[in-house]
Amino acid sequence: xxxxxxxxxARLTTPRAAAVAGIxxxxxxIICLVLIRISVPADPRDAGAWLAGxxxxxxxxxxxxxFSGVAFLWxxxxxxxxxxxxxxxxxxxVFLGSGLLFLAMLFASAAMAGGVITVFQTMxxxxxxxxxxxxxxxxxxxxxxxxxxxxAGVFMLSSCTLFLRLKLAPRWMVFLGYALALCLLLSIGFLxxxxxxxxxxxxxxxxxxxxxxxxxxxxxxxx
Length: 223
What we know:
Structural class: mainly alpha
Number of helices: 8
Distance between the termini: 29 Å
Oligomer: single chain
Strand content: under 5%
């Protein structure tokens, strides 16, 4: 059993493509979330005054979001490919399913927000008076801050389980991931910046994988 784990670790701790994709996803998503957070009021019942002055920042964030999603898909794909025969069906379902659901709801919320901004640019007063802004704003908020982030928490839990079972990361990093995942699952509605937890944790894991990759390549030269 120890030999199998050692063999698996040798294959899994050097996926440079997964590390690069994870870093790209994290950086782009952090930029998007920060742009949105500093431009849009945290209260989903706001009157929409930000549309007149901060719509450009939000539009930029929404245009960057698909590239972040592509990088996340690549990250998932490389990790699953490296797992190979060691990926059981339960892990495969939770890991892949939560990741895809997170992306689907992230894109759905972005599409809803983008639609509201586009319509506001052509007929601003009608959007506010007809209640279209209020509906779109509330729907976007619920999709992103309730459902998408909870799926991100499930993805973190399943990822940490993998790292713990196959010893792919330090134990402190794994248990930190468990704690942060529980925060996403239980307290998302109370902290406005908590959505940054997921990309920051992915960035931490990806940087660690990349560092380990270069250390392994440099080891023979040192000896």
